[in-house]
Specification:
By secondary structure, the chain is an alpha+beta fold. The chain has six domains: 141 residues, Immunoglobulin-like (Sandwich), CATH 2.60.40.1220; 52 residues, no CATH class; 216 residues, no CATH class; 130 residues, no CATH class; 73 residues, Cation efflux protein, cytoplasmic domain (Alpha-Beta Plaits, 2-Layer Sandwich), CATH 3.30.70; 118 residues, no CATH class. Helices cover 16% and strands 27% of the residues. The strands form twelve sheets. The protein has a seven-stranded mixed beta sheet with strand order 11-34-10-12-24-8-35. Strands 25, 26, 29, 30, 31, 32 and 33 form a seven-stranded mixed beta sheet that branches. Helix 4 crosses helix 5. The radius of gyration is 47 Å and the shape is elongated. The N and C termini lie far apart (122 Å). 29% of the residues are buried. InterPro entries: CHP02243.
């Protein structure tokens, strides 16, 4: 078998097409199969396209077909130039009219020969040759000896799974580059690769002694290559959210997905400062956790302070200025002469002994604490959980004209008192016992008083947060402004939430518990000739004049500072000196317990003690890298817009004071208005202040062109009555008291137990009543039993076993005899003792 040479880059036909040499050749061959004109048998017409115009005079005797396995001896019936197909050929019966039109319309009709064969070939390869005559196999005059033949297949249009392009068996052209092992990326493999290359280009050099200069150069290059490979791998690793290991990379990837990771938050705590004389405590006064052997007041830059710092106490700093007064160190509650009093759960007002109207003001914070056990009188037995801070909203001076009658000894002198009030959000979460207890002799203080109140109010309360201000730090000089990214010297920079010291209306509970880590910023400011540089979450909204920067936290706790590029954020000038002022400290370590703070660093001689009556809250660690990796791809699923009424209800429920909300869209004449009905937590009213707060909260989600109106729920007062059979041996009155307490607005009918559209089931009432000791059964039939809406006739609720309400209605049963329209429940007792 004879095989002609094959080439990876055949170019003879291309050269012939542009050459002035009078030679022609075959460019390509096409077998008409599916594209054959109507009436023409498929695979029996060959279109042979020449490189140059086809010559006249070629006939069937000048075309030979060889090859085939099953079908051999394929004969040529006639040959015709496509451009010469005429009506005469049609008249002679050689071609049809459709064929003539087809051949004349070919784009290269003057270079195409039409060859008609007597039968179609098989699936093997055939060769078409142009010859001088049947007896002379040499190519016709004017034809290239190589390009006068072409191989083809009759079945080229048949479906095939393989590429129709011929496969070249020729080796690839050697470009002169040596073979390189791209898997060689560490020191050992790179060293071996370099030695192999040197052996190829310089076979005579065989030295391998480490002391040789050439070997030293090779090993130095391998060392550099090892580091370069690691750098390339590190860059490739940081390029994807799923593989990035650096916190800055993950943060930037997450930001592109509209997810903002948080870097933790520092804790906040209420601190009480006890003084002997009035004074003013400035903001950023350090307060330290308890240190052995140190006095309560430490002077700045003193030896005592240096010794205390050696024990590494946690440092808090006051967040605002405060005027301190000795009269506010401890304030007694005033019970108007009554005994055995308490402040119940939900209290929002109290009375203090003495005229404090000139010392207490709206916006001040008081801490209520149980200082002694109401039972034993010992300080150690006091419940540390019964401590609560409130922000005052009103301070009113009053006089008790009978107050002197309760003194020891009694007198006719009136007693000055102060009425204080605070917000519903700061409402007392527990019962505070105001009993005056006998103090055991062993537990009396230096005053020797035998009777003291179990609970008192503490004034001189200032808000402090975890973190210590460091001395100013000079950053490295600015080199290339666009690549300037300095790193602070100390790790553990404080991340704190924004705080406005002039805002004196935010409830106390919010200031320590509602610290969102997503809102924190590094406690860093920079000063330079350009002015004050402030931290921002990002520079996307910064213009080229704003002196702002972004603090980027790394895995080791170090903070890098990223500046703008001149379009988003100002660029520091080359050579500009920047001075950093920052704080360190934060995270969950700042969540200290009550009474952990015991020292204050100040020059004020009137300060005698400091403490934190309540534990610190809000300290959190930076978001874990794996948490960022898992949460960022899902961030887009969180809805951040309100279009439909259901959207508005969902957004309203994100407000911390909203338990449930329903929304309705109505046409109000010129535009649509979304009416949002809100069920507040703890049954708080939907007043004007809350409406303004919620409307501002929804503004970022509201769709343009839609107004928002806030209203309260439609309460459904109940009218309930049940017959209760009491077990023998139980007092009927005691069982009834237990039932009324169980079904009061503080327990079963608490506002948070019911919301919009939630029905009341009779079975739930029976189950709760049967759980009361002494209840034998509950009668749910008869004329004395009621299970219906107040003021409305029954509608089959008792028969159905449930009382349904609408989508904007909420069950209510306060059982207040003064307001029966708020719901009532009656128990008709039978049996018992």
């Amino acid at each position: 078998m004879s095989i002609q040479f094959r080439c990876a880059n055949p170019r003879r036909a291309q050269v012939l097409s542009t050459s002035a040499i009078p030679l022609n050749g075959i460019d390509l061959l096409e077998v008409l199969d599916r594209d054959a004109p109507a009436g023409v048998s498929p695979q029996q017409t060959l279109l042979v396209q020449m490189i140059k115009p086809a010559p006249w005079g070629l006939g069937a005797a000048n075309v030979q077909l060889t090859g085939g396995v099953r079908v051999t001896g394929v004969k040529v019936r006639w040959v015709l130039r496509a451009a010469d197909a005429s009506s005469a050929d049609v008249a002679a019966g050689r071609i049809t009219g459709a064929e003539r039109t087809f051949y004349n319309g070919l784009s290269a009709a003057d270079r195409t020969l039409v060859v008609r064969v007597d039968q179609a070939g098989d699936f093997s390869t055939y060769t078409l040759r142009l010859v001088r005559s049947p007896t002379d196999p040499s190519p016709p005059a004017g034809f290239d000896p190589i390009l006068s033949r072409i191989t083809f297949s009759f079945k080229v249009d048949c479906p095939s799974e393989f590429d129709c392009a011929p496969v070249s068996d020729c080796p690839l052209e050697d470009d002169g580059t040596p073979p390189i092992d791209y898997l060689a990326r560490d020191y050992a493999s790179l060293r071996q690769l370099l030695f192999d290359r040197l052996a190829a280009v310089s076979p005579t050099w065989r030295e391998r002694n480490p002391a040789d200069l050439g070997v030293a150069i090779v090993e130095g290059l391998a060392y550099i290559g090892d580091y370069l490979s690691y750098y390339q791998d590190a860059v490739a690793t940081e390029a994807y959210l799923g593989t990035a290991r650096r916190r800055v990379s993950l943060r930037r990837h997450a930001r592109l997905l509209d997810y903002v990771p948080h870097d933790g938050a520092n804790a906040r705590v209420w601190v009480q400062v006890q003084v002997d004389a009035p004074c003013t405590l400035p903001a950023r006064t350090p307060v330290l956790t308890k240190v052995g052997g140190a006095p309560p007041r430490l002077l700045p830059a003193s030896a005592e302070l240096a010794l205390a710092r050696q024990q590494q106490p946690l440092v808090f700093e006051t967040m605002h200025d405060i005027r301190l007064d000795p009269a506010l160190n401890q304030i007694d509650f005033y019970t108007w002469g009554d005994e055995g009093c308490c402040l119940p759960v939900g209290t929002t007002r109290a009375t203090l002994r003495g005229d404090l109207s000139s010392r207490l003001h709206s916006g001040d914070v008081l801490a209520f604490i149980e200082q002694r056990s109401p039972i034993t009188g010992y300080r150690a037995d006091a419940d540390p959980a019964r401590r609560h801070a409130v922000r005052l909203t009103r301070v009113t001076a009053m006089t008790d004209p009978l107050g002197g009658q309760f003194a020891d000894p009694p007198s006719n002198q009136p007693v000055a008192v102060t009425e204080i009030e605070w917000t519903d959000e700061d409402a007392l979460p527990f019962i505070l016992d105001l009993t005056v207890v006998a103090v055991p002799p062993a537990d009396r203080d230096e005053s020797g008083v035998a009777r003291q109140p179990a609970s008192v109010a503490l004034g001189n309360i200032v808000l402090a947060d975890h973190g210590e201000t460091l001395p100013a730090e000079l950053l490295p000089p600015v080199g290339d402004p666009l690549r300037y990214r300095p790193k602070l010297a100390r790790a553990g920079v404080t991340f704190a939430a924004p705080f406005d010291p002039t805002n004196r209306v935010t409830p106390a509970v919010r200031l320590v518990s509602d610290i969102a880590p997503s809102l924190t910023l590094p406690a860093v400011t920079l000063t330079s000739a350009s002015g004050l540089w402030q931290p921002v979450p990002d520079l996307l909204s910064s213009n080229r004049f704003q002196t702002e920067f972004v603090g980027e936290l790394e895995n080791d706790g170090r903070l890098f500072l990223r500046f703008g590029d001149g379009r988003t954020g100002r660029v520091p000038a080359a050579g500009e000196a920047l001075v950093a002022h920052y704080r360190v400290g934060g995270g969950s370590a700042g969540n200290i317990g009550a009474d952990a703070l015991a020292h204050i660093v100040t020059n004020e001689s009137g300060i005698r003690a400091v403490r934190n009556p309540l534990p610190a809250l809000g300290g959190s660690e930076p978001e874990a890298l794996e948490a960022i990796r898992q949460s960022a791809p899902q961030a887009f699923r969180r809805q951040e817009r309100a279009v439909t009424p259901a959207d508005y209800a969902t957004m309203a429920e994100r407000h911390p004071s909203v338990q449930r909300a329903v929304a309705t869209r109505r046409w109000t004449g010129s535009w649509y208005t979304i009416f949002i009905t809100v069920d507040r937590r703890d049954g708080l009213p939907v007043d004007a202040a809350f409406e303004a707060d919620l409307r501002a909260f929804l503004e970022r989600y509201r769709m343009a062109g839609q107004d928002v109106e806030i209203d309260g729920p439609i309460y459904v007062p109940l009218d309930l009555a049940f017959v209760v059979c009491v077990e023998a041996g139980y007092f009927t009155a005691n069982v009834k008291v237990a039932l009324l307490e169980r079904f009061s607005a503080r327990q079963f009918f608490h506002p948070d137990n019911f919301t919009f559209g939630q029905p009341l089931y009779l079975s739930h009432i029976i189950a709760a009543a049967m759980a009361i000791p002494g209840v034998r059964w509950i009668e749910t039939a008869g004329t004395r039993v009621r299970f219906q809406r107040w003021g409305k006739p029954p509608r089959g609720e008792l028969v159905n076993g449930q009382l349904d309400v609408g989508r904007r209605e909420i069950i209510r049963c306060d059982n207040d005899p003064n307001r029966p329209e708020h719901g009532r429940i009656e128990f008709i007792m039978e049996g018992g003792s």
